[in-house]
Design a protein that fits this description.
The chain is of the alpha+beta class and about 375 residues long. The chain is built from nine helices and 16 strands. It has one domain: 4-Layer Sandwich (Phosphatase 2c, domain 1). The strands form three sheets. A seven-stranded antiparallel β-sheet has the order 8-7-13-14-1-16-15. Strands 2, 3, 4, 5, 6, 11 and 12 form a seven-stranded antiparallel β-sheet that branches. The protein has a two-stranded antiparallel ribbon with strand order 9-10. InterPro entries: PPM-type-like_dom_sf, PPM-type_phosphatase-like_dom, PPTC7.
């Protein structure tokens, strides 16, 4: 009997070893860190007198964005300043720039938790409200983080700025667009008084949060409403297919794809007979219109890849190498390409300044709001 049991054990022992080795392989593969190749493109609609000769980097009109890399994550963000503030003498882009600048600062400070994006938004919003200089305005926003070790993407969006995760020609995750009514999205706001009912003042904890597991080859698109109001998902997928088909996608390929997305959105915005996503939504509200929505456009395009093994075992050196590689892609003095499109400057990459323009909005402007506003604010 004992010899029979020994034979049975010997039969199952190789199976156990094979299973054990498979599990170890899965664990090993799971520990491979992910990276993100990224490119930025945008269009400045030049509809505001607040434009400066030298624009801050990663700013397109009232849109602003940021990109940061930490040891544990890649973080991408966009914000769209609500244009309705312009009629009250306020630069709509100033608030969006402040929010993105604070987001980047918090991420780089080490206080950032990749899967707690609502906390990041709350910290940035509080910093803007408590800034020494009054920054009036409101903005929609979307922030996405790739957690490098867990192979997950986390997203948080407020309003109609959003993101897509694409795999093999299909959208596997999309952000949720939030709105109070047609053409009135959720938005972070800094009105003359926080108790004013004339403004929409949505809170960071109202941001729609999503997450999805990703793998090498997945494509992440983060953009403002200038992209999603004018291009359907099928049009975006068709364009992204060009980089998915490449065996070895390069930074130049990503830049070209991001630029084409912006060009298509720009063209669709001025196509009078095109039934854009914005027009389709308007028709659901009983407004029979066609065409797109001219405005600022910002697109951040990211391709998920495996991190290449570092030649050194020094973890700090590896992290610094990753950071330097990322910043090289967005070095302001490298690979700049600007050209004229319909008498408006189209920025196919980034601008070359890190200073924020000053705004004419002041405390006196804030005081005059109380008497000037007589209706509920509705963003346009």
């Amino acid at each position: 009997m004992s010899s029979l049991m020994s034979q049975i054990r010997s039969l199952f022992r190789p199976v156990s070893k094979v299973r054990g080795s498979n599990n170890n392989s899965e664990v090993f593969l799971r520990r491979v860190r992910l990276c993100l190749l990224t490119a930025v493109a945008g269009y400045d609609n030049k509809h505001t007198k607040y434009s400066t000769r030298i624009s801050p980097k990663w700013v397109y009109g009232d849109d602003a964005c940021f990109l940061s890399v930490t040891d544990s994550s890649y973080v991408l963000g966009v914000a769209d300043g609500v244009g309705g503030w312009r009629s009250y003498g306020v630069d709509p882009g100033r608030f969006s720039r402040a929010v993105m600048k604070n987001c980047e600062r918090v991420v780089n400070s080490g206080r950032f938790i990749p899967d707690k994006l609502e906390v990041l938004i709350a910290q940035c919003y509080e910093d803007v409200l408590n800034s020494k200089e009054l920054i009036l305005g409101s903005a929609t926003l979307c922030i996405v983080s790739l957690q490098r070790n867990e192979h997950r993407v986390y997203g948080a969006s407020l309003g109609d700025s959003g993101y897509l995760v694409i795999r093999e020609g299909h959208v596997i995750q999309r952000s949720v667009h939030q709105k109070h009514s047609f053409n009135t999205p959720f938005q972070l706001s800094c009105p003359p008084t926080l108790r004013s009912r004339r403004f929409h003042c949505d809170l960071p904890n109202q941001a729609a949060q999503t997450s999805v597991e990703v793998k090498p080859g997945d494509v992440i698109i983060v953009g403002t409403d200038g992209l999603f109001d004018n291009l359907t998902e099928s049009m975006i997928l068709q364009e992204v297919k060009t980089i998915e088909l490449l065996a070895n996608c390069t930074i130049d390929s990503l830049k070209q794809c991001a630029t084409r997305l912006v060009e298509q959105a720009r063209s669709a915005a001025f196509a009078p007979d095109f039934v854009s996503p914005f027009a389709s939504e308007a028709r659901r509200y009983g407004i029979n219109i066609a065409g797109g929505v001219p405005g600022d456009i910002t697109v951040i395009l990211g391709l998920v890849i495996e991190e290449k093994p570092s030649p050194t075992s020094n973890h700090v050196k590896e992290t610094r190498s990753s950071l330097n590689h990322h910043h090289l892609l967005f070095q302001p003095n490298r690979s700049l390409s600007c050209f004229e499109l319909n008498c408006n400057k189209f920025h196919s990459f980034i601008s070359s300044s890190s200073t924020l323009p000053t705004s004419s909005a002041s405390t006196n402007t804030a005081k005059s709001f109380s008497s000037k506003l007589s209706r509920t604010y509705s963003c346009t």
